[in-house]
Amino acid sequence: MSKIYGYARVSTGVQTTDNQRKEILDYAHTKKLSVEKIVEVEASSRKDKKTRLVDDTLVELEKDDILIVTKLDRLGRSTIEVLQIIEDIKDKGIILHIIKDGIIVARDNNNPINQMMLTLLTGFAQMERSFISERTKSALAQRKAMGIKLGRKKGVLGKSKYDQHKEKIQELLSYGVPLQKIVDYIGIGTRQSLNDYLKSRNINK
Predict the structure, then answer these.
(1) I want to staple 76 with a disulfide (CB 3.0 to 4.6 A). Which of 82, 128, 145, 158 is the partner?
(2) What one-character DSSP code corresponds to residue 61?
(3) Short-list 111, 47, 103, CA closest to 70
């Protein structure tokens, strides 16, 4: 039987997810859906800025499961992030219900209105990438003009896409889980890239 989850997110501790929870349950009732779980997330600190907030929820969901959110912006902090999450959801065969936008996103859903909305979202994401790129180039040029050396200091490791999953990776390794299974579980990278990451961080397999 398909699992049906709700997902509610607020940005500060002052806010609550009560309204989102009610909207999700009311919507599910009208659609005759039985919500098994509502994931409630608070993302208030700056350290959460680049964290994919729905990753852990998507790990629990499988093909034909349903995820319900009140609005698109509950999925992520930027258009780019939201679009990537939607692609992940479609790739896994999960069905996404976006209440206030009246959109249902599914891999085999060819509804023209849904397609138009996602096309617009893609355009906004490309625009956002362009703005970020321009701001980055401008900042680097300014620092260079000020005589500030660019680049990482020698011996300093750069950030990795695996860093946010480091504890989970180490836990799975301690149970003897093969690298490929870990990659499948966390949903990013390849066996080789994970192996390279472990070597760079001196993590024993």
Answers:
(1) 82
(2) -
(3) 103
202 pLDDT band (50/70/90 cuts)? Answer: confident
Q: What is the arithmetic mean of pLDDT over 51-74? A: 84
Stretch among 24-28, 29-33, 111-115 having the lowest mean pLDDT: 111-115
Cα gap 166→173, rounded to integer Å = 10
pTM higher than 0.90, yes or no?
Answer: no
CB contact set of 12 (below 8 Å; sequence gap of 6+): 42, 44
68 CB neighbour count, 10 Å cutoff: 25
Name the residues annotated as catalytic.
Answer: 11
CA distance 94 to 192: 27
AA identity, residue 84: Q
Q: How far is 74 from 76, CA to CA, in rounded Å?
A: 6
Distance, CA of 75 to CA of 82 (rounded, Å): 6
d(CA 55, CA 72): 16
Q: Per this entry, what is the length of the chain?
A: 205
**pLDDT tens for residues 156-180?**
456 788 888 888 898 888 888 889 8
Judging by beta carbons within 10 Å of its beta carbon (0-12, 13-18, 19+), is residue 67 exposed, middle or buried? buried
**Burial state string for 39-49 with b = 16 or more CB within 10 A and e = fewer than 16:** bebbbeeeeee
Provide the CA 75 distance to its chain's centre, in angstroms.
7
